[in-house]
């Protein structure tokens, strides 16, 4: 069983959870060709994907969905609002294979999958928790402007967490390429989590049982892996939590080179 961030960042996001024979894909933000290539780096065929979970309809999460559904009859799940947006924008080749998240248990029995709403500037974005048969719980938390009570209720107690650490406020503020309204969007309660936002909540997650953390959806323009990593480790150290003792910390790469985390 492994978790493989296939692509992660401002331009494309997709993560595989499972093994070489059976698993799920969260988002299809890279091209179909890239998706096949990234999975092959893990000696995994596309046939291993038994379900696709979509967080929301932004293009960096659904770019490859049309081609994926053109070549595969795999069920796709999203919130009711996101389903509507996907259909309206023509992101599904076979719309009859698109279902709401409430239907997941009718198709997937190997994992207990639950969706929770996240505050983002999309129609109805969600994150996911995936609980394995042995009780091990994985939380997938990206694309949200703040940690809400619903997010806390769904994710505290998870063992493994992939969480957004999108931007450094100083880099964002000094970014001359971004207009003011874009910066305001990112900073808003329906934007993205900063390194500080993410690190503060990671502390709570670890204090409630998380031992493995992956920082994801880092902005290329307003963050660096080194900055996000250092801020997180420093924040946790201030709370008495030791890296590689109380927790492990990884950074999801922009595109996969075959890295995965065994669970």
Notes on the structure:
It is a single chain. The protein is globular. A seven-stranded mixed sheet has the order 6-5-4-3-2-1-13. A six-stranded mixed sheet has the order 7-8-9-10-11-12, covered by helices on one side. The protein has 263 residues and is of the alpha/beta class. The protein is built from ten helices and 13 strands.
Summarize the structure.
This protein has helices at residues 32-40, 59-62, 65-71, 80-88, 104-107, 149-155, 169-173, 180-187, 195-207, 225-238; strands spanning 2-7, 14-18, 23-26, 49-53, 76-78, 98-100, 112-117, 126-131, 137-141, 160-164, 212-216, 248-251, 261-262. With 263 residues, it is of the alpha/beta class. It has a 7-stranded mixed sheet. Strands 7-8-9-10-11-12 form a 6-stranded mixed sheet, with helices on one face.
What is the topological layout?
Layout: E1 2-7, E2 14-18, E3 23-26, H1 32-40, E4 49-53, H2 59-62, H3 65-71, E5 76-78, H4 80-88, E6 98-100, H5 104-107, E7 112-117, E8 126-131, E9 137-141, H6 149-155, E10 160-164, H7 169-173, H8 180-187, H9 195-207, E11 212-216, H10 225-238, E12 248-251, E13 261-262
Parallel strand pairs: 3-4, 4-5, 5-6, 9-10, 10-11, 11-12
Antiparallel strand pairs: 1-2, 1-13, 2-3, 7-8, 8-9
Helix pairs in contact: 9-10
